[in-house]
């Protein structure tokens, strides 16, 4: 019989255990082939959410999500993960028993999804994970590119998505928007308004917008100086 002595903290009595613990290893990364388009789609969405919500939410992308502390095989790697309640900071993996279940997970369909894990199996895993809102985006599906699931009474239930109205995210307080682009085809975005006019911007888009505003201001100042000299 193995007896392990341990002191938990200053002043706490010494504890003795009947066996040594057996560590459970939870990998933090895995090499998974992907396409450039898939990478750009998920990175753009991740960037938008970090810019808009980083002050009040932790936002991850392609990190392992674990919900069973006894079995590291029970895991997912959402393309985007959001947990509201703390400012954004780096994390290597997400363990539900340590941080709580993510409020939002997004899956951007890639070529490898069908062969790696059928969607129904992945959906069942998300049910077990405790995720509150699940989004599936398939840029190749012209009829139903966006599908949504909400957690109702402990279950993840697919929501009917209207083709004429933007779908509202209860978790984010924003609207999901599928937007055509010349380079990537359809991409998933978010908007603050139901008309899709107040789109969230990526880091790059926000920088370009700021540079454009500076150029406009400089042009306006130059115009005023010219008017004053005339």
Quick structural overview:
The chain has 230 residues and is of the alpha+beta class.
Description:
The chain is of the alpha+beta class and 230 residues long. It folds into 2 domains: 27-199, tt1808, chain A (Alpha-Beta Complex), CATH 3.90.1570; 200-230. Helix content is 28%, strand content 27%. It contains 5 helices and 14 strands. The strands form 4 sheets. A 6-stranded mixed β-sheet has the order 3-6-8-9-10-11, with helices on both faces. Strands 5-4-7 form a 3-stranded mixed β-sheet. A hairpin with an 8-residue loop joins strand 1 and strand 2. The N and C termini lie far apart (97 Å). The model has no long low-confidence stretch (mean pLDDT 87).
CATH class identity of the largest domain: Alpha Beta
Low-confidence region ranges:
none
The biggest sheet amounts to:
6 strands, mixed
- Give the strand order of the largest sheet, numbering strands 1, 2, ... along the chain: 3-6-8-9-10-11
The tally of domains stands at 2
Q: What is the strand tally?
A: 14
Number of helices: 5
Mean pLDDT: 87
Q: In whole angstroms, how far apart are the ends?
A: 97 Å
Provide the CATH topology of the largest domain: tt1808, chain A
Percent helix among the residues?
Answer: 25-40%
Structural class: alpha+beta
Shape category: globular
Cα-atom Rg, whole angstroms?
23 Å
CATH architecture identity of the largest domain = Alpha-Beta Complex
Beta fraction of the residues? Answer: 25-35%
Order of helices and strands: EEHEEEEEHEHHEEEEEEH
